[in-house]
Design a protein that fits this description.
This protein has 368 residues and is of the alpha/beta class. It contains 12 helices and 8 strands. Helix 5 links the parallel strand 3 and strand 4.
Length: 368
C-alpha cells in the first residue's frame, strides 16, 4: 500500500492541537445536480442504509436519485440563504465562535469544521490540519445523541482517512453529550427566551431525527439518549409529563422507524383540541432542511390544517451564546491533559486551582 506523502518537517517545530467540529453535510447549491451528488454520497454510506449493496445500489441509482433529487432541490431552495446553506453557515459560525471562546480560556488550539457528506469534507480538513502540524486532534461531532448512522459514521471517515497516512496524529473522539449539563442548560435558555417573548404553549413537542426501529433492537443507544435529553430538559423547565411529547421525524422508506412520528402526532394533538404547540428539535444544533422545511413548514401545516391555531417553532441552538459556552465546555473537558495552554495561562490555571483547594481545605478544617 502506498501512503500519502507527509508534509515537510522541521525539527524542533511546536506540535499543534486542533478541535474538528463535524456536522452532517449539505449540497453545495439547491439544484438537482448538486443534491443528487450529495444524496449519492449520503445514501451510499452503509452506516446510513443497512441494506446489502447488491440490493440497494439498483434502488438508489434507478429510483431514488433520479426522482428524489429534484424534489429535494426544491425543498432546499425554499430555505436557502443568500450566503448559502443554513446548516453550513451555522456550523462555520459555531466553529469561529468556538475558536474565540476557547482562546479566551487560555487554550492555543486550531478550530476547524467539516461535513461528513459534501464539503468541506473530513479528509480535506484533516489534510489541512496535518499541513498545519496538528499532531493532536479532538473530533467533536455535532450530534448530541450518539447513533451508528451519525457519530459512528464520522469515526469511520476519520479512520479511513488515516488508514492511508504514515504518521497518524493522536486522536480523541467525542461520543455524545446528550446529558451534558451545559447542553441541557443551553436548550433551557433557548426555550425560556422563546416563552418570554411569546408565552407558553399547551404542549411542547421535542422532535428528534428518526432512525429505523431495528437499530434500537440491535443495540443502538440513540432512542434512549433522545429520551434522556427530553427528560432532563423537561425537568429543568418544570414540565409535567403531560405537558411535553417526544416524537421522531424524517422517516424514509417503508420500514418501521422510531415512534411516535412527528407529523401524525401533531395532527392528532390538533384533532384532540390542542390549540397551541411549540416544536423544537433538540438533536439538531444547527437549523437545516429537516428543521426549517420539514418541521417549520410541513409539520406546521399538518397542525394548522387539522384545526390547531398556533404553531411556534423554536429555532435550533445555532449561535446562541449559551450553546457556544456549552460547546466550549465539552471541548475543554475532552482536551484535558493535552498541552494546549501557554505557560502563562497554564500557570494562572494552576494558581487558581491551588487557591480553590486551599479555600476548601480551610473550610473543611473550620467545620472540624
Amino acid at each position: 500500500m502506498a501512503f500519502r506523502k507527509e508534509p515537510s518537517y522541521t525539527h524542533g517545530s511546536a506540535q499543534q492541537t486542533a478541535v474538528l467540529l463535524v456536522n452532517l453535510g449539505t449540497p453545495d447549491e439547491p439544484t438537482p445536480a448538486a443534491v443528487r451528488r450529495y444524496l449519492k454520497e449520503f445514501l451510499s454510506d452503509p452506516r446510513v442504509v443497512e441494506i446489502p449493496k447488491a440490493v440497494w445500489a439498483p434502488i438508489l441509482h434507478g429510483v431514488i436519485l433520479p426522482f428524489r433529487s429534484s424534489k429535494s432541490a426544491a425543498k432546499y431552495a425554499s430555505i436557502w440563504e443568500s450566503d448559502g446553506s443554513p446548516l453550513k453557515l451555522h456550523t462555520e459560525r459555531q466553529a469561529t465562535l468556538l475558536r474565540g471562546y476557547i482562546g479566551e480560556r487560555g487554550h492555543q488550539v486550531h478550530v476547524a469544521y467539516a461535513m461528513r457528506y459534501g464539503s468541506p469534507s473530513i479528509p480535506q480538513v484533516l489534510q489541512q490540519l496535518q499541513e498545519q502540524r496538528c499532531t493532536r486532534i479532538l473530533v467533536l461531532p455535532a450530534y448530541p445523541q450518539y447513533a451508528g448512522s451519525t457519530t459512528a459514521s464520522v469515526y469511520d471517515a476519520v479512520f479511513q482517512h488515516y488508514a492511508g497516512q504514515r504518521n497518524v496524529p493522536e486522536l480523541r473522539m467525542v461520543k455524545h453529550y446528550h446529558d451534558h449539563e451545559a447542553y441541557i442548560d443551553a436548550l433551557r435558555h433557548s426555550v425560556l427566551a422563546h416563552w418570554d417573548m411569546h408565552g407558553r404553549p399547551e404542549k411542547l413537542v421535542m422532535s428528534f431525527h428518526g432512525v429505523p426501529k431495528r437499530t434500537l433492537d440491535l443495540g443502538d443507544p440513540y432512542h434512549c439518549e433522545c429520551h434522556k435529553t427530553a427528560r432532563l430538559l423537561a425537568t429543568q423547565l418544570g414540565l409535567a409529563e403531560d405537558r411535553y411529547l417526544v416524537t421522531f421525524q424524517s422517516r424514509f422508506g417503508k420500514a418501521e422507524w422510531l415512534q411516535p412520528y412527528t407529523a401524525p402526532s401533531v395532527r392528532k394533538l390538533a384533532e384532540q383540541g390542542v390549540k397551541r404547540i411549540d416544536v423544537m428539535c433538540p438533536g439538531f444544533v444547527a437549523d437545516c432542511l429537516e428543521t426549517l422545511e420539514e418541521v417549520d413548514m410541513e409539520v406546521r401545516q399538518e397542525f394548522l390544517m387539522a384545526g390547531g391555531r398556533e404553531f411556534h417553532y423554536i429555532p435550533c441552538l445555532n449561535e446562541n451564546p449559551a450553546w457556544i459556552h456549552a460547546l466550549t465546555d465539552i471541548a475543554e473537558e475532552h482536551l484535558l491533559g493535552w498541552p494546549t495552554m501557554s505557560n502563562g495561562a497554564a500557570r494562572e490555571v494552576r494558581e487558581r486551582d491551588l487557591a480553590i483547594s486551599r479555600k476548601r481545605a480551610q473550610e473543611l478544617g473550620a467545620k472540624q
